[in-house]
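Is this the right way to post structure tokens for a design question? Let me know if I should format differently. Anyway, here goes:
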């Protein structure tokens, strides 16, 4: 499990050629979306600005802006990296990754997962929403998002925690978190372990199908809205920087309500 998978913004990352007519249409859209993101007058609502930001992010990472001029690239950066939404998003992603890294250093992968979710739970509602939509659940180069909604992410994190805990307890994973192939080979006669090993090596480990298979195999319980932390995890979260002071879209976050939409 790589809880560090948040999505840095990079225009044209997919590097797929865009023909002239399509690029012209995309650039018109860039200008319209950028004007919404950069409008801090109150004319555009927080929700509209966030949706515009997400759409710009999707255009950038899927290569829809590949071939744009320097002036358009500057506008893209102003609306994404330099805007209030972009700066707050980047700060939230850094703090989320810091929580995961501190957890990993203190107690391995299982504590990293708990620390990341716990840090998410300490954030104000608007920052939770922004972090999830622009970082944790941002689109990849194919335009796909890893999770259906926040609850799907929570379920997956719970399954990830179950998996790494089971593999560590089995003795097949060493103190450094790496798979001990000799120890694993000895245990492959155990059908449950063999199935768990296959799932642990599956790269598609953010899908709802993977989450369901792990939960069924390892007897998972429904994850709580807030995680119960060990003393070590509490110390990690307490020592992290406070939530960014910069503004963020103020739409309320509701458990399981942030559903993926196409950018």
């Amino acid at each position: 499990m790589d809880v560090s998978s948040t999505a840095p913004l990079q225009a044209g990352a997919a590097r797929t050629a865009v023909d002239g007519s399509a690029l012209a249409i995309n650039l018109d859209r860039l200008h319209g979306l950028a004007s919404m993101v950069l409008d801090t007058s109150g004319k555009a609502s927080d929700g509209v600005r966030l949706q515009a930001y997400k759409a710009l992010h999707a255009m950038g990472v899927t290569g829809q802006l590949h071939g744009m001029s320097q002036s358009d690239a500057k506008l893209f950066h102003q609306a994404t990296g330099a805007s209030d939404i972009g700066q707050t998003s980047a700060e939230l992603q850094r703090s989320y990754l810091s929580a995961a890294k501190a957890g990993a250093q203190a107690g391995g992968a299982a504590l990293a997962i708990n620390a990341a979710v716990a840090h998410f739970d300490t954030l104000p509602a608007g920052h939770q929403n922004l972090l999830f939509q622009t970082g944790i659940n941002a689109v990849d180069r194919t335009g796909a998002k890893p999770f259906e909604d926040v609850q799907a992410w929570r379920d997956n994190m719970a399954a990830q925690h179950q998996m790494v805990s089971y593999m560590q307890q089995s003795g097949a994973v060493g103190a450094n978190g790496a798979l001990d192939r000799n120890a694993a080979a000895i245990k492959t006669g155990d059908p449950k372990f063999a199935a768990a090993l296959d799932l642990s090596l599956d790269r598609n480990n953010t899908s709802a199908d993977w989450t369901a298979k792990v939960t069924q195999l390892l007897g998972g319980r429904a994850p709580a809205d807030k995680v119960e932390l060990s003393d070590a995890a509490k110390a990690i979260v307490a020592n992290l920087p406070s939530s960014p002071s910069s503004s963020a879209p103020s739409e309320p976050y509701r458990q399981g309500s942030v559903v993926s939409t196409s950018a």
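Format looks fine. Someone answered above. Worth noting: Residues 14 and 63 are 4 Å apart (CA to CA). The first helix runs from residue 20 to 37.
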